[in-house]
Amino acid sequence: MSATSTQSSRFTLFPRLSGAAVAGILIAILLMAFLVLPVAQVIYVAFLDARTGALTLQNFEDFFNTTLFQQSFVNSFYVSAMSVVVATIIALPLAYITTRFNFAGTAIIQSLGFIPLIMPPFVGAVAMSLLFGRNGTVNLLLNDYFGFRIPFMEGLNGVILVQSIHYFPFILINLSAALRNIDRSMEESAQNLGASGLRLFRRIVFPLAMPGYLAGAALVFIKVFDDLGTPLLLNVNTMLAPQAYLRITGVGINDPMGYVISFILVAFSVFSLWASFLFMRGKDYATTQKGGGGLSKRELSTKEKILAYGVILLILALVLSPHFGLVLLAFGTIWSFSPLPDGFTLQHFHTVFTESAQYIYNTLLYAGTAAILDVVVGTAIAYIVIRTGLPGRKWLDYMATAALAVPGVVLGIGYLRMFHGIQLPFGLGPMASWWGIIIIALMIRRLPYALRSCMAALQQLSLALEEAAENLGASKSRTIRRVVVPLMAGGILAGFVTSFATAAVELSATIMLVSRASEAPLAYGIYLYMQSPAGRGAGAALGILAVVIVALGTYLSHRIIERDRLRTGRGEAEQ
Amino acid sequence: MKKLLLGTALGLLAVSTASADTITVVTSFPQDLTGPFKAAFEEAHPDHELEVVNRNTNASVAFLQETRDSNTTDIFWASAPDAFEVLKSENLLAKVDIQAEGIPDEIGSYPINDPDGFYYGFAASGYGIMYNTRYVEANELPVAQEWEDLMSAEYNGHVAMSAPSRSGTTHLTVETLLQGDGWEEGWAKWKWIAGNMNTVTERSFGVPDAVNSGSAGYGIVIDFFGLASKATGFPVELVYPSVTAIVPANIGVIENAPNEEGAKTFVEFVLSPEGQEVLLNPSIMRLPVNPEAYANAPEGFPNPFDEDFAPGAIAFDVDKSGARYNLVNSLFDVMITYRLDDLRAAVSAVQEAEAAHADSGNEEAQALIAEARTLIEALPITEEESLDPSFTGVFQVARKTEDTEVVGRQAEVEQEWDSFTVDNYRKARELAEQAAAL
Amino acid sequence: MVGASNKEKSMIRETAGIRIENLHLSFGTTKVLAGIDMEIKPGEFFAFLGPSGSGKSTLLRAIAGFGPRPKGRILIGDRDVVDLPPWKRNVGMVFQSYALWPHMSVRANVAFGLEERRMPRREIGPKVEAALELVGLLDLAERMPSQLSGGQQQRVALARTIAIEPQVLLLDEPLSNLDASLRVQMRRELLALQRKLQLTTIFVTHDQEEANTTSDRMAVLDGGVIQQIGTPQHLYDHPANGFVAGFLGTANIIEGRVQDGAFVTKSGHRLPVPAPPQGADRIVLRPQNIALTEERGEGILPGRIRHREFLGSQIRYLIETADGTIIVDTQHGPDTHDHAAGSEVALRIDCRNAPLLT
After folding, report:
1. Which domain holds residue A290?
2. Is A129 domain-assigned?
3. Averaged over A282-290, what is the pLDDT?
4. Which chains touch A (3 or more CB pairs under 8 A)?
5. Are B125 and B220 in contact (CB under 8 A)?
6. CA distance A189 to chain C (A)
7. Has residue B291 got a pLDDT over 60?
8. In Å, how far are A19, A374, A490, A568 from A478, measured between CA atoms?
9. What would the pLDDT profile of A204-245 be if each residue is shown by its tens digit?
10. Signal peptide position in this chain (chain B) (predicted)?
11. Which of A61, A194, A422, B317 fits a disulfide with A431 by CB distance 3.0 to 4.6 angstroms?
């Protein structure tokens, strides 16, 4: 980001434009070219008469007149809302215990709590149904010993369970950050006035952490609302996203309803975001204040410690169960209608290592580059939105964030439609089948995550620190490079990790854009394996590799963030 | 950053060297199938390299449609004949002269090659019922031999299949039954089978996956899924019902292919006796279209050219199937896939009522049950309508002739069917519950 | 002293004294409080004065129950509270940052403590209003904290604390976030309020003027140890050591020894002091007790002005002498002679009341 600004200061064609303005224009062009226009190319079909090609709103009328779609909308809404509830129940204790108490293993718990986000496609659902399905480990044992089953994975329940386990880290991350920013005196004054325990949490701590919580909850809501992978894998099709997918990708079908649903998905998601922004406006209490005491971490008594560890272990066991199932699958031989695999083997890993090295290299290259671009663009947007008065700056934020709501398939088809005709120089062929387009797709799809982290980091940065640097003679761009970016490092890194980790297992847009197996990423490799009976173990093994690589990266970043926090003295300074 | 640039540079080099004599294949086949073919082909033709791009059938067709203006693909290689039909109708396939010997014109009653010469069948697949032996044993279920078996109440909740709209091969099975038993009888059969389902999957591989892991007992699958699963070691078996669709898996050269000569070489290799034997590889398990290839087949390997194989196979009318392709898919989705819960509730209610009155001789109850059965089996359109261009036109991509009047928009028609179906299922359940209470 | 009305008096159930006995406290291996002993009388306005890092806030927080558990005893009234959690101590604390909850209105903030005490709703309303009336903010009850000025926030914090009728009121640098003129006004209001309620109050500050003007007695802390306890005037006039002398007002501390009923500086200058204690080796000279003179002779110390500061009512000189730099304040008025930096001057030292330190 600093790079664009320094370049722009040497930019002489439009000398009246500031560096920030040039960066803003470049980002706007980028978002238009790689997000807005490709999506519009796909979605405008929603406004066309299938027969005559004339503009019409008839399709929307049909949508609202169709019982199936009404029901799908209700189901999608219900599943999203319930997923937020369940995800909250999972995330809240983890966030609270690790941020507000002196607790050994906080970094590990926070890292483990992040891992569910890195659930490779297909394998997760297979592992979950092997554990919790109708004839999965748990139900087979329950049925053998107690003669009943619990329908964890049936219908909408299954979607809610899988989605909340998959997406709760968004709440965990945001809520933890918000809890860390509550000044100790806020809690102490309540204790001083007689509040303690759950009442203290309910009346003071949680309301103060509300903005962070809502940011996470909105993200979960929208992701679940727009996600089609999980419902499709669980064979739930009476929801909006799967309906859109089924209708867009059917062979030779020209059903405009798929595009209508896509439009409604995007519109509803943007509306939800906007509503959550509106709700949060004026509520972003930065409570770490002058004369405050920083963060308080309380000690726990032995009894409380045992309870806390019990709760945490229980939650971790639940949220990591898909990964546990994945491990069994990867090391197991045959696993069919039995609590555990019949035997164990290393064969699948052997297969993966001999056949699939290029997937790992490609994934690191694609997801890494995309995540770097994400934090660069994210920091730039954050700076432009928060620190400059450029007209229309908020639209950069809205546009980038809207990418959250764009189904990957829609983006993939949009890219094919828009860029296939463009020939790249140097014999790279059509732009849409160039591997770089995969990086761009990943970057656009993961930009909202990085953007939110960068925004949060910059918001907490006092303007006085920048003014001090400028006062001492640093130019705007040098201030950004020497003061703003280093102080935002923690947030930028968090954004990088989220973008990287989720990009590393992304499939929906990628699968449309991969044009050579040698240029395919990991998730695509997993997809290939998981299409055949013999590939189940190997797919799981590749999934494990993906998780391990990303988890290691996450853990390292956590360590760096922690170290950074200590170094800049944001630890617990007592009087 | 430097590493990134280096990576970019290396990537450029890799791309430019790879384009020497590369044949690019877009396929829906798993690596288990493409891998052995790639290895065998590159060994036989060291001057060629096979570049395999895997996408599911739907994504492949979308990809080929979207990229037609600057095509980079040489070959499309997939099971579903209907996908080839779509590509052919959109002029995306090239008519190439392929030299192949010893391959008959028909397998079962299905023509192996496109009569117009746009694509070639290279392997055959039959449809069967795949079941998990541990599951069947634990639930003490009999083995289903025929499609009709799956209609009986004891299989309630144990069956899985994929939606015909998602899997071209499943579509053929649905259509086979509709042609074999007649429109009304066929749909009735599917509804009673579907009433016993615990899931209708959105991926064709979802069915063998469910049976392999034991979440479903029986799956209606294309045979190689069952055979390959068994070969991998899963406790599963496959039976061929006497009425089965034998369908070829196909290969075709894309119009305007960058490497048409190479494409031709590969297609000829796949159809050669050498290529045909690759199909017997245990992780592939598809039926060669060249009868000679069966000489080296392992014991018990099904031979569709054998007289004993699927004696009840019907004469499959390809034109009929093609004309109402999307309509049948949509009708299946509306009546079964999207309303599976309603259908299951109605079917279960009827099954319970029948069990309650098996020997009671209560005529009022029998009448109610009969009425409920009629309601479940009721169809919103007749066979004539299903073949009427003004009806099928509703579901087609682009009308060939502008003068065909269609009856409405797809969403409108589907909504009509949907309320018709949901209403009937609800009434049927109520009647059956009344009967059971008598 | 302002008499408390019945209504106001009823706000305080019972005020209590505080006794601290041999209190030790460490953060990990760092000792922060070492052997604190003190007694604060019921109704007393008591200040903890010290530089930052002296342990004064830690001591206050220990009384409120925050921070690590200390060793020793803290008695409020007759009750040892060391093992009680903060919410059971019934001490009211006003935080330096005020710690008003931004998500609650002024009224909700003030009502909070009463609600936590499970007081019936109909009783809470009047109590909240009484507390707000006491600090003069009744008309702002529905505002959110972010809509208030610093002084108003301070008052809300105070009202919130008083509303729970604590036995003891703890104020942690309550004026440090206010601007200078408001600070003077607030400290008077605080004192008036304390007198009205007759509530035992501890006031933590690093500002000697604040401590001097408000407190009945104060404790000067440094390095986690109490240096001296007493009335502000006593501490100023009779500092127990150099730290107290230097911390309370400006002091020239000159080294020397007692000889023949006088204090003789290192350079041999003789300062007559009445009844000097044996063994004293330093004398504390306040700048205002030294005058610049033209005279020469007995008791007159020569020097040269190094630096001059204009303070408004006074002019301060830093003067180089044989006994080191000495600070001298002279009244600024029409009659006083102004000296330029660099000029040679003579100092006449009035050491009749000058404290001697051993």
Report:
1. 72-345
2. yes
3. 55
4. B, C
5. no
6. 7
7. yes
8. 12, 21, 19, 20
9. 888 888 888 888 898 899 889 888 778 888 888 889 888 888
10. 1-20
11. A422
Cα diameter, chain C: 79
Q: Residue C64 is nearest to which of A192, A204, A574, comparing CB atoms?
A: A192
Nearest to A251 among B57, B338, B414 (CB): B57
Percent of residues, chain A, with pLDDT higher than 90:
21
| Contact between chain A and chain B (3 or more Cβ pairs less than 8 Å apart) | yes
Indicate the pLDDT class of residue B397, thresholds 50, 70 and 90: low
Residue A433 and residue A307 in one domain: no
Is residue C85 located within the same domain as residue C184? yes
Alpha-helix runs per DSSP H in B80-220: 81-89, 133-138, 168-181, 183-194, 206-213
Q: How far is C151 from chain A (nearest CA, A)?
A: 15
Quote the pLDDT of residue C30: 86
Same domain, C274 and C330: yes
Interchain CB contacts (distance < 8 Å): A and C: 94
Are A188 and A314 in the same domain?
A: yes
Please indicate, yes or no, whether residues A322 and A375 belong to a single structural domain of this protein: no
Token pair, residue A548, equals 């391990």
Interchain contact A574–C (C-beta under 8 A) = yes
For B165: left if phi > 0, alpha if psi spans -120 to 50, otherwise beta; the answer is alpha
Residue A532 in domain: no
CA distance A206 to C112: 15
Angle at B109 between CA B104 and CA B112, to 5 degrees: 40
pLDDT at A87 over 90: yes
Please report which confidence band the pLDDT of residue C354 belongs to, taking 50, 70 and 90 as the band edges.
confident
A517 CA to chain B: closest CA distance, Å? 5
Rounded CA-CA distance B300/B277 in Å is 16
In a domain, C235, yes or no: no
Residue of C66, C119, C160 to mutate, testing the A interface (most A Cβ within 10 Å of its Cβ): C66
Judge whether A273 lies within some domain. Answer: yes
Inform me whether the pLDDT recorded for A251 exceeds 80.
no
Phi-psi region of C67 (alpha: psi -120 to 50; beta: other; left: phi over 0): left
Q: All domains of chain B, ordered by start, with CATH? A: 19-123+248-296 (3.40.190.10), 127-245 (3.40.190.10), 324-438 (no CATH)
Residues A365 and A329 in one domain: no
**Which residue carries 């899985």 as its tokens?**
B160
Residue that finishes a domain, picked among A504, A519, A534: A519
Q: Tell whether C206 is covered by a domain.
A: yes
**C202 and C70, same structural domain?**
yes
Query: Binning pLDDT at 50, 70 and 90, where does residue B13 land?
Result: very low
Report the number of distinct structural domains present in chain A.
Answer: 2
Q: Which residue has the higher pLDDT, C181 or B312?
A: C181
Coil, strand or helix at B159: strand
Residues 6+ apart with CB under 8 A from B8: none
Q: How many CB atoms sit inside 10 A of residue C120's CB? A: 7
C182 lies in the same domain as C273: no
Average confidence (pLDDT) over C56-71:
90
Minimal Cα–Cα distance from A533 to chain B, Å? 5
Residues A90 and A130 occupy one common structural domain: yes
CB C164 within 8 A of CB C114: yes
Are A136 and B215 within 8 A, CB to CB?
yes
Report yes or no: A234 and A134 within 8 Å, Cβ to Cβ: no
Asked whether residue A260 falls in the same domain as residue A322, the answer is yes
Do A457 and A398 reside in the same domain of the chain? yes
pLDDT of residue B311: 62
Least confident interval from A175-184, A351-360, B9-18, B318-327: B9-18
What is the SS3 assignment for A185? helix
The answer to whether residues C215 and C338 belong to one domain is no
CATH of the domain at C65: 3.40.50.300
Q: Is B134–A512 a contact, with Cβ atoms under 8 angstroms apart?
A: no
Q: How many domains does chain C have?
A: 2
